[in-house]
Specification:
Strand order of the largest sheet: 3-2-1-4-5-6-7
Number of strands: 7
Largest sheet: 7 strands, parallel
Order of helices and strands: HEHEHEHEHEHEHHHE
CATH architecture: 3-Layer(aba) Sandwich
CATH class: Alpha Beta
Strand content: 15-25%
Distance between the termini: 44 Å
Helix content: 40-55%
Bound molecules: nicotinamide-adenine-dinucleotide
Structural class: alpha/beta
CATH topology: Rossmann fold
Number of helices: 9
CATH superfamily: NAD(P)-binding Rossmann-like Domain
Amino acid sequence: MKVGINSLFSLDKKVAVVTGAARGNGRSIAEGFLQSGATVYFIDILKKTLMSVKNDVKNNKARFITADITDFSLIRKVMENIYNREGRIDVLVNNAAITLPESSDTYTDNKWEKTYLLDLKTPFKLSQLVNRYMRRKSGGVIINITSLGSELGFSNNPAYVAFKGGLKQLTKALAKDWARYGIRVNNLGLGYFRTEMTRKSWADKSQRRKRTERIMLGRWGESSDLVGPAIFLASEASKYITGQDLYVDGGWLANGI
Ligand SMILES: NC(=O)c1ccc[n+]([C@@H]2O[C@H](COP(=O)([O-])OP(=O)(O)OC[C@H]3O[C@@H](n4cnc5c(N)ncnc54)[C@H](O)[C@@H]3O)[C@@H](O)[C@H]2O)c1
């Protein structure tokens, strides 16, 4: 059977929701989806930053919502409003996350709980919320943004490593439970990207060099490097893929000595 390449990667007529889309990786993914023809909801807690993205993007398929996605009664209403307005939700990208480094010896409950709430519980709650809309339309796609920390130990960051590892496994659980509704769930796992999250390690020359040396392709990722892989996972091009990890890491994980 012949399949048109353009339609394979098209998100035309699809409605996508991307969390943490005011900057960094989430913004790039959301803008990539717009280019692929989707109506895209950019959701973020940072109102001012989100409004400046709105001014830059100028696309009539872009929608902007300021919300704290850890406020579950608010986000339930947000999702309901999106569904009522658009009649569908096809793609959810669980991108928003935080990292709160501190020694494991003294790691505080407060940091542990904050990281758990945003990095693991919220992606689960959001996935449950979109599930009920996706299954009405015979399916959808959930993409969870995972990390090298989902696979490997990194020092002085126990909560981030624990919950990104948990998110990786949650993806597999949901892929299994929701395949019957036509919902595919995959991980987009990231290596080192230059964003606000990694500002400190980029600014420290020795840390930057150490990380760069491990990357086969010899450079940190730019958020735009995620556009192709994210469109692939969101579109028909990956229609027989679920429960998988796609690492966009310049070869970090595959690197031996
Ligand atoms: N930068 C990297 O090297 C790297 C590596 C691995 C994984 N990641 C993952 O990439 C994703 C995006 O991170 P980034 O690097 O772009 O960092 P970032 O800090 O620039 O982006 C996170 C975004 O999430 C938003 N956000 C935070 N709390 C929120 C809340 N309660 N409600 C709504 N929005 C909220 C922030 O305002 C911000 O816009 C995260 O899942 C992160 O773990 C990043």
